[in-house]
Specification:
29% of the residues lie in helices and 23% in strands. By secondary structure, it is of the alpha/beta class. The strands form 5 sheets. A 7-stranded mixed sheet has the order 11-25-24-23-20-21-22, with helices on both faces. InterPro entries: Glyco_trans_9, LPS_LOS_Heptosyltrfase.
């Protein structure tokens, strides 16, 4: 008689005793208490060549300075100073008779070939290394002598007798003919022609760009339309445009997703492992019409799974020598025909490889999603998944889970508002509020500081805002000012503001308490606004578009104020390197910030908006 058992049989016991392996005793092969921390070290104090890294030098020269010379210096510290002197002498000789210019930016859009596509008002930004005192920069179309834009070079740094200059020229491309052409930028030191740079570009009417990229035109601070008043200067036009008022993003898509193309052009195992991800997409977008593109032989499996409304197929041949699958000329023609003229709101390639992503370019898609976003600039959203076995360092996440992680990440991007993390009740809260003469939700906080000066709305604007807000709202204001800005004159000015309390330096617990119980925070694009938003407080943030407002605007609650400028996305931390003296943030009017703050106060006395 056979004894019946329930459940699964016990797995065989390993011959290796791992019972002694615990978190307390685990070491691993990589553990090294003396491991170097290069990304956390002060590189400037370690290398005498850090000043040279910002210079517009050829790649091979930078490689020599960043790789070979530091290696020699480390091995032979006695020659370090000599090498430094020789390198500076070399750089001086390198530019002694010629100004060196490096392109930073020319517009924000690019064709698949890398050729800049210019439309509306664009930024032509360069870095210049010169021993001359530069006075102006002019932008000209090819074959023309008329300047269509001018800018003043701004000195950024000085190394010996050499100076680094930045030029940020704003160009109205409506003054240029449509089509491919060369654009020139000439640098002058007084009447002397000091340098020149030219680039091929393609000019497209802004109406075409608006038709091709309606979401980008609507949401991006980097697109600036050309002026309708041709008598107005380009800079004056840009700074006269209304400040944008953004609500924190709810999801990555700006509109409904009604049509989806799913690609999985691999073999049966790959497609089978992707079926759960396809089913999840069906659940996430129940109203969308879904089309799947797969190999012809596998289509019956997909049809039987009910993951799509339409099934397209392609035929891949196999090369046994290269062990790769490929499209024959006939098969390529067929797949191009099947996708030509098709339009989808979303195209998503579920392959973690790098072969099939370009197929998404054969049709129009508002959003393209895939793995390997770093290798394919046309991908709007993507992830990379890496997992490693402890012994052979190969992947351990199974393929079905790997593929589904892309869909899970996309689902997360569709629900970007994170939950409020309130401050835990504390007996000290009441005393902290009482010490500063305020009650819960009975005051606002204004924070004028930021780590990077480029992020700061001017302090006089904050003081003017406090005066105007107090005159209208009669709500107490707790004003925080960085100690570096707190001069005797500023202190005296604050003392003359009714209803405004200039806050002393307080510890982080007290600061968190005051932020958590305020009615509203008005601040720069800096840490306090993120803490306040996480605590559920509405925020009016004055954002500088050096990074996109979508990425670094507060996650929830309130409004993000930013200005459209053609150099948006510059990523600069140094205000001197801007070339426009951070006009994008310093030009935000006090009246705009006041209006936004009063609107937030009026709406539910600080309750988080539903929009």
């Amino acid at each position: 008689m056979v004894k019946q058992t329930s459940g699964y049989p016990e797995p065989p016991q390993s011959t290796l005793d791992t019972r002694a392996c615990s978190a307390a005793s685990y070491q691993g092969l990589d553990t090294d208490p003396d491991a170097p921390l290069p990304s956390l070290s002060d590189r400037e104090t370690q290398s005498p060549f850090s000043d040279l890294m910002t210079l517009p030098l050829p790649r091979n020269v930078k490689w020599f300075l960043t790789r070979l010379v530091p290696a020699i210096s480390q091995k032979l510290p006695r020659v370090d100073r000599l090498l430094s002197t020789l390198c500076y002498a070399f750089i001086f000789l390198f530019v002694a008779f010629r100004t060196r210019i490096t392109l930073i930016q020319i517009g924000s859009m690019k064709a698949a070939t890398g050729l800049p596509i210019l439309s509306g008002v664009i930024a032509f930004r360069v870095l210049v290394l010169s021993r001359h005192d530069l006075t102006r920069a002019c932008v000209n179309p090819d074959g023309a002598t008329t300047d269509i834009a001018m800018a003043t070079p701004v000195p950024v740094r000085k190394i010996g007798s050499l100076k680094i200059w930045v030029v940020n020229a704003w160009v109205d491309t409506a003054r240029l003919p449509v089509g491919r052409q060369k654009l020139h930028l000439n640098i002058y030191a007084g009447s002397r022609h000091a340098g020149h740079i030219r680039r091929f570009v393609t000019i497209r009417p802004q109406e075409d760009i608006a038709a091709c990229l309606p979401d980008g035109i609507q949401d991006s601070d980097a697109f600036v339309p050309s002026p309708s008043d041709k008598t107005m200067g380009t800079i004056d036009h840009v700074l006269s445009l209304p400040v944008e008022r953004h609500r924190p993003q709810r999801q990555i898509f700006s509109g409904a997703i009604r049509s989806i193309l799913i690609l999985r052009t691999d073999q049966l195992g790959d497609v089978s492992a992707s079926l759960p991800a396809m089913a999840r997409l069906r659940t996430l977008f129940p109203e969308a019409r879904i089309t799947v593109l797969s190999q012809k032989a596998i289509a019956p499996v997909l049809v039987a799974s009910g993951v799509a409304d339409e099934y397209l197929s392609l035929s891949l041949s196999y090369n046994s020598r290269t062990e790769r699958r490929f499209l024959t000329a006939e098969a390529e023609h067929a797949v191009r025909d099947s996708l030509r003229g098709r339009e989808f709101d979303l195209a998503i390639d579920l392959s973690p490889g790098t072969e099939s992503q370009p197929l998404m370019l054969l049709c129009a898609a508002r959003y393209r999603v895939s793995f390997k976003p770093g290798q394919f600039p046309f991908i709007d959203f993507g992830i990379e998944v890496t997992s490693r076995d402890k012994i052979n360092r190969k992947a351990v996440v199974n393929h079905a889970a790997h593929v589904s992680m892309l869909v899970s990440a996309l689902e997360g991007a569709m629900h970007m508002r994170q939950t409020v993390v309130p401050r835990l009740p504390s007996n000290s809260d009441a005393s902290i509020l009482g010490d500063h003469g305020v009650e819960k939700k009975g005051y606002i906080v204004v924070h004028s500081g930021a780590r990077h000066p480029i992020n700061r709305w001017p302090l006089p604007n904050f003081l003017a805002f406090c005066a105007d807000f107090q005159a209208v709202a009669r709500i107490p204001i707790l004003l925080f000012i960085d100690k570096d800005d707190l001069t005797d004159a500023i202190k005296a000015q604050c003392e003359g503001l009714d209803g405004v309390k200039l806050m002393p330096s307080i510890d982080m617990n007290a600061f968190d308490t005051l932020l958590s119980h305020t009615l509203l925070l008005v601040a720069n694009d800096t840490g306090p606004k993120h803490l306040a938003a996480t605590r559920g407080v509405n925020v009016v943030s004055i954002a500088i578009p050096r990074v996109n407002w979508q990425e670094w605007g507060q996650n929830r609650g309130g409004v993000i104020l930013s200005r459209r400028v053609p150099c948006a996305g510059c990523g600069l931390n140094d205000r001197h390197a801007c070339g426009m003296d951070a006009a994008c943030v310093v030009s935000v009017p006090v009246a705009t910030v006041l209006e936004a703050a009063l609107e937030e106060i009026a709406y539910g006395k600080g309750d988080t908006r539903s929009d």
